[in-house]
Fold these 2 entries.
Entry 1:
Amino acid sequence: MTGDDPRYGAEVRRRMATLAGAGDLPPGPGVVTARAGDREQGAEILLTGRVESRRLADLRFRAYGCPHFLAAASWLTGQLRGADRAALEGWDWRAAADALEVPPAKFGRLLTLQDAVRGLARNWPGAGESTV
Amino acid sequence: MTGDDPRYGAEVRRRMATLAGAGDLPPGPGVVTARAGDREQGAEILLTGRVESRRLADLRFRAYGCPHFLAAASWLTGQLRGADRAALEGWDWRAAADALEVPPAKFGRLLTLQDAVRGLARNWPGAGESTV
Amino acid sequence: MEDVVYLDNAATTAVDPRVAEAMLECLGAHGDYANPSATSHAPGRRARARVEQARAEVAGVVGARPEQIVWTSGATEADNLALLGAARYHRPRGRHVVTSRTEHPAVLDACRQLEREGFEVTYLKPAEDGLVEAPQVEAALRPDTILVSLMHVNNEIGVVQDVGAVGRLCRDRAVLFHVDAAQGAGKLPLDVERDCIDLLALTAHKLHGPKGVGALCVRREPRLGLVPLLHGGGQERGLRSGTLATHQVVGMGAAFRIAAASMAEESARIAGLRDRLWEGLRRLPGTLLNGHPMRRAPGILSISFDDVDGESLLYELRGFAVSSGSACATTNAEPSYVLRALGRSDRLAQGSLRLSLGRYSTVGDVDAAVAAVGAAIARLRAVAPPRSPA
Amino acid sequence: MEDVVYLDNAATTAVDPRVAEAMLECLGAHGDYANPSATSHAPGRRARARVEQARAEVAGVVGARPEQIVWTSGATEADNLALLGAARYHRPRGRHVVTSRTEHPAVLDACRQLEREGFEVTYLKPAEDGLVEAPQVEAALRPDTILVSLMHVNNEIGVVQDVGAVGRLCRDRAVLFHVDAAQGAGKLPLDVERDCIDLLALTAHKLHGPKGVGALCVRREPRLGLVPLLHGGGQERGLRSGTLATHQVVGMGAAFRIAAASMAEESARIAGLRDRLWEGLRRLPGTLLNGHPMRRAPGILSISFDDVDGESLLYELRGFAVSSGSACATTNAEPSYVLRALGRSDRLAQGSLRLSLGRYSTVGDVDAAVAAVGAAIARLRAVAPPRSPA
Ligand SMILES: Cc1ncc(COP(=O)(O)O)c(C=O)c1O
Ligand SMILES: Cc1ncc(COP(=O)(O)O)c(C=O)c1O
């Protein structure tokens, strides 16, 4: 019954089952957030990460949107754990499109995801200082 | 199966079952014939009667046409047995129309029947002489 | 389908076993499968008798005489035959047609075709409750108006138009009146005489009859001229050529007969289920009923949920067969034009759900749906970002 | 129907039990009854999958791709969609259409409608054997000819036209070619690619499928423009709106699949029965075969009897379901226009019989028919007046 909907691939169904990574982290040292999208346009995301030793030790999402978008956000939290700021800056939505078999009509929503990821990099703790 | 055809009433079906009166009589004294109609037009009839004591002692038909026409011819042979010449001259197709529940579209064929009956009267033995 | 709770009876319904049985009697080699036009032999006459019995059954439900019924392949064809057929025939009298924005695509797209043919169509905007009232129709009439088309029960939101009032108005003004009764006939009382309906589109499959058969009920006195859509064998008094599908027509007859016999009772039961559904759902925050709260058909409930993505909501409800709009529109992702016409925002329209009940719907189905919708909405809202940036 | 021998398979056929079973699976509450357009839920997707499987089954039988199949309510609608749809669309290119005098009324009456719309139609007269050959079509083509319509198997006399030859001619001349294959598809090989057929009308009920469903097979490459007859939900790529009748479409798919699998075998068996029938009947004096003696479909035999009234002959044969002409014409008493076009006199046409065989016809049926026709003719001739006045 649930497995026959050709619109949603296996990864979307797996992700939607638990929405692993949903939620947020209490504010505190090393905690960084980024927001992107617009609910009125159909997709909005809030990412919250905790940076330890210049890497994402934890990442959570909250999202509004279609199953592909929610699933991609969930998938992302697993993918980016351990990533450093440069990885976030270079993150590309195409990886999510492939992993989640997102139809082209919805690529725009993945750009919203990418905006949020790059927003995390921008808001990276100490990003204002030059800490190379 | 055969009784459900609304186009043919009970009397038509009864008559068609046996076609009582079909055939003709060997030529001989008192035998009179009349023919009417045209096969190309869809109805043709040949009546043969034997006159005894100025009455039709026997009457047979041969006919080509639809079931209503054949049945009416058969019915006629029963009706006119015992009739005198005057009865034949005054015979009216409407009697057959009623008895056989003939649809109006086929009234023309009954006129053919009437022609034949009146033909019998015309050809009545000794009709040339005035034998009143 | 045991694994899915079916709540999409406005899209189509399961065929009643009694209907299926009557249909089966017209299929196999020992049934009445002959061509009902072949009345020169006994099997053909038996098929014809069945067709005529079905005609009387359907006519009876809408207060018509059997000879007013023209069999079609469904309400889409009946609507097209009514609109295109009547407008093309009566074109010399005028080229103006009046309808509403919330009609079914079978009416709206036929009207667009009429526009391509040089007609002018006024599309009335219903009030926020989905209703189009007679004075609004009256205001739209012009000297060259030849036809008004208004649906009986709306397929998306279930509101019931006062077709009798509009019918009487049209009769007074000598304007033809067509009613699309695909969703309402057999469920609510309808009478072509009393309601002054000249043309009435019917379908079997919303009433536990088969898909692919319907009828147009056509006024006969005085005779109403129509240009046919299909030309050929001259069946249905020349108005609709094509071999009559005995089993389909017989199925429609049985469905209408059964529906009429139990109409009051069944409507009350289904309206009770619908009310239970609404009572359960209205408690959820941000829930809005679409359409007039009272003037509604028993089986259809349309709700908009604020702040929930419609596609994700449907995904969460995948154990239920429900619709986010008219069945005919589910393949495109456009927000429902019906809900938009009622003034709902795109996002509200997109986050809307139609749950529609039928003969086989149960209290258990309703309670399961209330629970599932509640859980889905709670889950989706819980995962959404807070409204004001944290 | 045990009491009547059914020999009217050209009018319609009994549904094969395997077909009925497949249909039943789409009707009841535990079947795939959902709306195939409701693909947002699982039951709808199951119905859609069934529809698409049927599409592939039907397409396969005529050498087409599934996406070429547009479901309709039968061949009457398919013929109308082909002729009216193509002619209206391609009107700017020309207004001349070519067809034959012995086409089915679905084609002829659609052509008359085109004439009312300003088209000019050439009705070719077939030879005495019922055939229209390619050179005759070629001679009728004009620079403004946009469409040729020729039937595959004639429904009254069973002759088979060489549609491939005409198709290749039309393709060469860039004229659209429509074939009404209601009587031949699934019984004789037909291939839209090989035979250069742009539009092909099909129906299920001549092939032991259900009445009320058919298809138009439409060339897609290059895309062939058509103006739809029915406007609405936009089903069938906008070419044919209306809720798809899953059980009907599935029945047609099954009927075509079954027919294709046994085509050679079944055609041979049925042709054998037909030959046995003809061998039995030709011995009767004054018996004439209608149509070409070799180029014929397996199941149809049309005979004229000299000097026998057709209505009385049918009456005598009331234990048999046979036809004196096309099923669509049995309600009127006019002599068959097809037989008239072949040069038969009114009286011969009127005294003609069509006996048509199908999957369930037996040697016993044939022998009973031979005996009964012989007896009927003998009886009627015996009672007729002698030819020359006695
Ligand atoms: C109001 C209304 N009109 C017309 C139709 C079309 O009817 P059908 O599915 O019989 O073509 C439908 C349903 O699809 C409907 O709900
Ligand atoms: C040659 C031919 N074309 C068209 C039709 C019409 O098909 P349908 O009965 O499916 O409308 C028929 C049969 O009635 C036919 O024999």
Entry 2:
Amino acid sequence: MSASLQWELLAPEYLLAGWAAFVILIELFWGGLGKERLGWLAALGAAGAGGLSLIWVDDAKQFGELADINDYTTLFRVLFCGIGATVCIISARYVSDRLLHPSEYYALILLAVIGANGMAAAHELLTAYISLELLSFSLYALTAYAKFDLRSNEAGLKYMLLGAFSSAIFLYGIGLIYGTTGSTQYAVIGDVLSGDTSDIEWGVYLGLAMMIGGLGFKVAAVPFHMYTPDAYEGAPIPITALISALSKAAGFAFFLKLFAGAFLPLIDDWRYFIAGLAVATMALGNLVAIQQRNMKRLLAYSSIGQVGYLLLGIAALSHDAASALVLHLIGYAVTNLAAFTCVILYYNWTGKEEIGEYKGLAERAPYLALCLTIALFSLAGMPLFAGFATKFILFQAAADQDLLWLAGVAAFFSFVSLYYYLIVIREMYLGEPEEKTRFPTPWLEYTALAVLIAGVFLVGLYPKPVLEAVEGSTATIFVGGELESGEDLVGAP
Amino acid sequence: MDLVLLALIVIPLAVCPLFMLIPSQYPQLSRYLAALAGTALLVLSALVFIVYEFDGGSGLRFELQWDWLENIGFLGENGITFYLGVDGVGAPLVLLNGIVIFAAVFVSWNITHRTKDFFILLFLLVSGVYGVFISQDLFFFFFWYEVAVLPMYLLIAVWGASSEFPTFSRPKEYGAMKLTMMLVGGSVLIFIAIFALFVEAGAGTFDMTVLREQSLDEDFQKWVYPLFMVGFGVLAGMWPLHTWSPDGHVAAPTGVSMLHAGVLMKLGAFGILRVGMTLLPEGAEFWAPVLMALGVTGAVYGSVSALAQTDLKYMVGYSSVSHMGFVLMGLASMTQIGVNGAVLQMFAHGAMTALMFTNVGALYDQAHIRDMTQFGGIAKRMPRHSAFFAIAGLSSLGLPGLAGFVAEFHIFVGVFRAGYWWAGGLGILSAAITATYVLRMLARAYFGPLNDKWDGLKEMRLGEQFAGAVLIAMILFMGLWPAPFIDRISETVEMIPGITG
Amino acid sequence: MTYEEAVFYVIAAVTVAGGLGVVTARNVVHSALFLILALMGVAGVFVLLASEFLAIVQVLVYGGAVTILILFAMMLTRVRDIDGPIDGPQRPIAVLAAAVFLGTTVLAVKETAWRGNTEEATVVDINQIGDALFTTWAMPFEIASLVLMVALVGAIVLARGEEGE
Amino acid sequence: MIPIDNFLVLSAILFSLGMYGVLARRNAVLILMSVELMLQAVVINFVAFAVYLDPEAFTGIIFAVFVIVIAAAEAGLALAIILRLFRNRQISNVDEANLMKW
Amino acid sequence: MGMEQAWLIPAIPAAAFAILLIFGPYLPRRGDWLAIAAIGASFVLVFPVLADLLDRADGTTYVAGEKAWEWISFDLGSVGETFEIEIGFYVDPITIVMLAVVTLVALMVQVYSIAYMKGDSRYGWYFTVMSLFAASMLTLVLANNLLLLYAGWEAVGFCSFLLIGFWWEKRSAAEAAKKAFITTRVGDVGLLIGIIMLWHEGPNTFNIQEIIHFAEGGGYGDTYLTAAVLFLFMGALGKSGQFPLHVWLPDAMEGPTPVSALIHAATMVVAGVYLVARMLPLFEVADPIALNVVLIVGLITVMLSATMGLAATDIKRVIAYSTLNSLGLMFVALGSSAVAAAMLYLFVHGFFKALLFLGAGSVIHATEEQDMNRLGGLAAKMPITAATFAIGTLAMIGLVPLSGFWAKDEVLVFAEEEQHVIVYLVLLSSLAITGLYMARLFVRTFLFAPREQATYDHAHEGGALITVPLLILGLLAAVGGFVVFDEVGEALGFPGGFAQFVFLHEAHQFDFQLDTAITSTVLAGGGAVVGWVLWQGKAELAARIRDAFSPISTLLANRYYVDEVYQFAIDRVVLVLGGIIAWFDRVVINDRGVNGSAYIAYFTGLEARLLQTGRIPNYALAIVVGILILAIVMLVTQV
């Protein structure tokens, strides 16, 4: 049963882990290295890991019976490493100004990336679960990282306790599935479930419900989202960015792979529950966002809304939907990072994060205001930017699976979302700044921002390459392995 | 020549970064650049209009089709293509857009606050409008449709003007927000309709030339067409979803009002024609009476409300509602004559309403009020301005020899031909009401003894005069010699399924 | 009823009693002690499940580390002096929710026809467990070590006092 | 011989108790303890399934081991955060920690 | 140069207009000479066209000439028809009559205007618009299809708007211009509907002759046709100031007097008559109701205007009422399908009414005063004016042998022969009243002692530019009527005489009946004499009568309160309605509908965010509840 393990397949993770240790040690032994440079160093490591994982492009290997190293993994490895690197870069200034123990901070980010990679790679519940905990733990610690910021502590506490609680529930669900199907391998579970399940359906459904709950918590779907706004608001802003990008992306990578690999046979039983969650999530996220006065909190709710759209992809689970979901996920991650970069830069200068305090930004830092505007418009699904194309494809995919009504609801709420984004834009362009002084130009951050915005435009104007990559990767995750695009799926309507 | 359409989209997009490069302390530079781009666009648009001639089939010319996304998932062979092409309906509207942006640049010459940002957004808007008129792919049609809405909020909210009235007030943010939200809200319906259409057609492509070949189930058409009708109708100022239009126009700066009432509102009607009626002829047939009723309501309602306005800009805004009502009537007649009239009316209204906004803006810049009851006899101080305004007004009340008459006459004939007596009669009546408010306005504000308060008024700026002259030239051209327009339009309209003779 | 069952019921009773105590005791320290009781009970259950190894781990890790940790935490946060009721206003709803959950779960457990030998527990050789842990399950094992590291680092960074505290 | 259901029901009871604790208790430490209780229930589940239904692969036992480890680590990290909060605000009651809401 | 080149007649003034509009300010004398030259050329061109027409006459019927250019044309694919609109010109005798009147009077008036408008700040503009007017009026006359006719129709209306409001600094002028345009516009609604109706059921063309042919072939349904022609008649009502749309014409006197002479007496206002005359075959084919409506409207107008003329004191207004009076008479003629009579009256009316206006203009020019209560005795100072004015007056009253007599006589004959006796009597009575107020006008203005010495002293005869047109028109007004005699007609070269010429259909002789003639003459003359008696000297007699019948006189002085009624309708109904709709639009549709739906979302959010209590136990509860719902629903539905 124990296959010979090819450890080299996990090279990127080892690199990250080693790099994390390296970052900690180098601060110990070479204090002369500035705090900011640490961040860039860590970013370097993450980027390196991302590059390293490109070795396995168009490859389909397995690590034991635990993890796949295939295009799906590679895609997400690159994405996660990219997110990690970006966050490290945009953290640098913030950390050096406002946080203690920078090296551990970066180390934790890198470890979080490992966890995320694991979640995407695993095709087995135990590994996936452990990776998930690794990611979560790092995030718990990082959320509470601003030790003397009361909101940070509180956010940490909420995130931590509720995380533990939900992971307990998740585990119980796993237990039931394991008990009923006798395995934690996605494929095996899939086979069992595609057979006759009438004798075990009680256990299966209960387990399914609890797993949906646990995953819902991870990706912040209503009603498991409650911690999100507080965690976002309390955490140090770069960490907010990390949560919104990394943990959501990882959560969906896991969610998608699990449901495509294991639960697809039962799709007709759970699709409408996911659809219900999606509706609730979109509605609550977008409607409550209208009321927000704090930028981070606004982005928190908006990201909840985005989760609603992403759940469309799960509800309409098919090869197309999966690709559309991942595409939107990528677009969302890039856009959201761009938005947060702007928020961080503004916070670095002014220490302000209320929407009302953004007034006159366009006067003081036109470039920043422009980028934030672009990011927000993209989140609202406006054309020229990523949001439009990805949403269009995602919704169309849902409509293709007889979920036109759901696509309609989603379209409606993405229209509602435009309102609160416009509120922010109004503040930036109409408000009169207190003082006229221009802001300095932090070249490194601005370059990062430029790259992200470029990404937003690329996905918005020519998503073909990205989408093709995604197509290839998502083909591998379905029951019965490789799939031609559009081909009919087990149990799919 | 094949790339001319591409240029129409690319030029306005390309100048945006150029504007960014211009240091903001040289606004004059950006003005010149804007003028340059505007002229280029005008020339190209005119070129398109002149060279265009119908050559059978769906009448598309200057076609250009590039792969964008295909053979992926639900997208089959050329699923989404960047497909440009102009037909006889698009050509006049392209010309119109060229003229209006050209005029708008000169009218906006006196924008001093964040000049370059203004022009960036303005040209973004223009590229969107062009895109809609020349896109033959449903995805990109909608893409550009949204692009055209994108910059509106900032354009109005930053450079607009709030207005106070005794009983109520309309801050510019309100106008801007309402406009943006209503337009995007309308596009939600379009969104849904497109999804449904794509799935139903099952051709795996958004290419409209292919989609129009699919014979879709009639019941399906019946429930999807209203989505297009209402969704585009919002932008076309269809009653009762028109309220964004007066407030939006009032709040917007002159140049934007021109583009917005002049061209943007046409996108809605164009969408109903190009997407709704072309792809879903049976649905259109089924809902034509409703559209007709809404159109007539809008026409009468708009003109009567305009009658009650004392604020010049509101009057013009409501007149737009009324004239777009005519357009919808023409479309709803589903007869070739009526639809021709509708397209003609789009052009005519575009030119004359742009002219009206030019005038109102010129007056407001000096007087800082728009309440016609407070003026009087200013024709003495601003003769040219008054003459321009009078011409615009006369065109809108349908004086033969001016563009408005040709269009409205076709619409009425078409409506009668389709057998909507009541609609035709009410339409002609509302044209008479138009005469009432136009002349009332002229008599109140421009004629009569000069009110000393306005002794200091000066003739409007040369830029504005130039813009006005161009627009008037167009109004006269179409009013006296409509054949070039009609030749282009009618053959294309003839090809549209569901259009009777 | 066989004597194993008798033993089971005794142990189960102890465990449940412990658990009940944990969530109902009016005094925090008492509930901590109840927790120890429950943990011991669970260890007993493991024995009944023929996995003594786990029982040992349980006693060491939990009975040792965790409970001590918790008691320390209580000491440090002086929870004794915390005034106000120990239960939140949500208690009745909590009862209801827990009850409903219990009902559902038990029903599910009863309704499900578990595939396999549901009568006889099979002894798993501890050596196999060791092998599996380091071969088949190597990846989770390594990641778990990282988890521990994260917890360690995080705990230190957060808990350690800084200058001026 | 003891039928598996007994263990499953036991774990269900423990889990529900823990759930009740999380919902009802105010003190962070107590909530943490309740979570531990739930994890215990989970572990019982896993082990029971393993030894009854899946003795060859006994994934459940491995799972149980890891769960215990994770639980311990969790306790550590959580307590650190609780301490930090207490140091800064002299509170360990979770419902007093609501600076951020709405 | 024949009928095919008739399009030059309007084209020349049009060109003049274009030139004046652009280069006017830079031309010597602001280009008045150009305008006059243009209209003169048109006048001259009428004769070759006429000659051509006569040449082509075979025996007693005339071959009409036509010439057309395609303006709009496209195929209606599915039905295989072609939708076509032409710019086409059509010449037949009626056209010629109109052309003659229009060009001649226009020429006279413009010459006259040189003096009258001298020194006006918008001198050049005046001639510009005049040229435009001439062009549009001639287009209207020559149009071969209803659409071109409509175009000219609207254009002349627009010109009259510009010219009535020529002195727009005067509030009253601006208002009058607005009133004129809008009132006529109301009629035009009907006209356009009528045109479209005729096209819709018709031979898919706007060509007048084809439509007539089609109708005579019984192409239209009876009621349909009746409705259509009545709509057409609405247009005529507006333009020709027939009741109830007559209110604008008296106010139109705000314009310069020559304008009143040309537009509001000789040409534009008779366009309605011309239209009905052109379309008369349709009226005849249609249900008799149509013609009766025309007749009755005409009668009402005759009586109203005649009586109102008694009360007016502004000389121009009096003449305006007399114009209404005459127009009414023409419609009566048409109502009894007497085209020839109507056209004859139109022909001569053009001359003597223009004459009257120009005379009045000369008075005003001389005295800057147009209230007859301040004038008087001017005959001594301005003999030529007085003499010509007298001719005009008598022609209007209709005394032998002046032109008015013959024309009016024809109408009477028809009324007697073909219509109910009441019509005849009404007409006769109106003649008496006409005599009264025309006499009053002349007496009060030119005879007896002046009422205001100052104005009197200031008065003087105008220069040749003024007197010559007066004399020419006076001559025509005097002799113009003789064309009724076929001999004269033939002498002038109209085979079969004037009636034959105008009346293309079955040969119809003017018949002269002595009794009618005598009755009418007696009545009219009597009226005039009575008028003389009443208003001679200080006119105490008249005053006494006025006081005796004060209610009637006030009623007349207030023009039967028609304007008040309209004013009320506009202020209290239309504007109020507009206000209501505007309010509805703002408050209901916008604030309730649009903002309301926005607020729904807003408040939902406001409430929903309260779920976010910030307390961990609540959050945990949410999770549990979520899972329980999921689990239970799943189990219930799926198991």
